[in-house]
Amino acid sequence: MAMAVDPRIDAYIAGQADFAQPILRHLRGLIHAASPDIAETVKWGMPFFTYRDKNLCNMAGFQRHVAFGFWHDKVAPDGSRGEAMGQFGRIRRLHDLPDDAMIAALLRKAMALIEAGDEPRSGVKRPRAPLPLHPAFSAALNADPAAAATWAGFPPGKIRDYCE
Questions:
Q1: H-type helices in the chain, by residue range?
Q2: Cross-sheet strand order for the sheet of 38-43
Q3: Staple partner for 90: which of 26, 61, 65, 155, CB 3.0–4.6 Å?
Q4: Domains of the chain
């Protein structure tokens, strides 16, 4: 399968600051060198790279830095996020990036996680514990079946608004 190039990413890179363009082109080349099955697209206004239709990594240019990061939290070298978007902090020049071999290894790790069906932790929402009802409010609901039915139909956020 040939490298899938999206002309929107060409335009995105061309529209970035002069310092950012070589960084973004370099990252794009490394990503595509990792596998011919990596596709590129634009999501949330920035270049995203997908593997087997799952988000693999993304890059973005800002006024004074570039950001690059992996979608899966287990790919980060130390298991955490950087001080900026992505795992590598604010990238201002090519030298700020990890070496090419490390990026290639991280790309392989991210692809292996996708192949294994491992989902990123950040995509899992944990339900919040219900807040206690004030006794007087609970008594009022018990006394009025119509109000209790309306209350039961509220989404969790609206219930929290009343309880807090």
A1: 7-14, 20-34, 100-115, 135-143, 145-152, 156-163
A2: 38-43, 46-51, 54-61, 66-70
A3: 65
A4: 7-122 (3.90.1150.200), 127-164 (no CATH)
| CA–CA distance, 137 with 97 (Å, rounded to integer) | 57
Cα dist from 161 to 28, 130, 138, whole Å: 45, 12, 15
pLDDT at 89: 83
pLDDT bin (cut points 50, 70, 90) of residue 3 is low
Token pair listed for 21: 């363009």
Token readout for 140 is 């009022």
Least Cα distance to 40 among 9, 85, 72, 12 occurs for 9
pLDDT digits (tens, 9 = 90+) for 63-122: 999 999 988 878 876 655 556 677 888 899 999 999 999 999 999 999 999 999 877 765
39 beta partners: 4, 50
For residue 11 the two structure tokens come to: 């335009």
pLDDT for residue 101: 95
152 Cβ neighbours under 8 A, 6+ residues apart: none
